[in-house]
Amino acid sequence: MKKIILMLAIMIAAATNITAKGANMAFGVDYNYSSKGGGSGVGFQLEYELLKNLRIAPEFIYTFSTDDCGHFTNVNINLQYVVKTGSGFDLYPMVGLAYVNGEGDLNNCGMNLGCGAEFSLSSELSIYTEQTLQLVNDATRFIPAFGLKYKF
Known about the structure:
By secondary structure, the protein is mainly beta. The chain has one helix at 2-20, and strands spanning 25-33, 40-49, 54-63, 72-81, 83-86, 89-102, 107-120, 125-136, 141-151.
């Protein structure tokens, strides 16, 4: 739990520093579903544009408790390569690192592979979906997510 709080504090501190420099950023909230144990959850994502088409996206996911597996918490850091297709629609493959903590002794690191799509509703709001395969030793799972982003 201390590691999760520390990671969230680092994300907030980084966001404060980045915002002061006037970078392109977005904050997203999503609903997701975990294929392992069948739990639904909520995710929070902060995106920062590193280069024109490359962004980093730290993410925190909480998967609610189920009878099969209990609850999960995830801290992910993903790189996304954005392919602009026009008309406010973007596609992006992503790869990243994952830290998963669950009930019992589940406490592992792994990697994420996935893709996403984003559609701009306005200059500040967009809807998105991400499909992530999380490769973790005892908890490999598929996580589809659907959410809303605020760009600032």
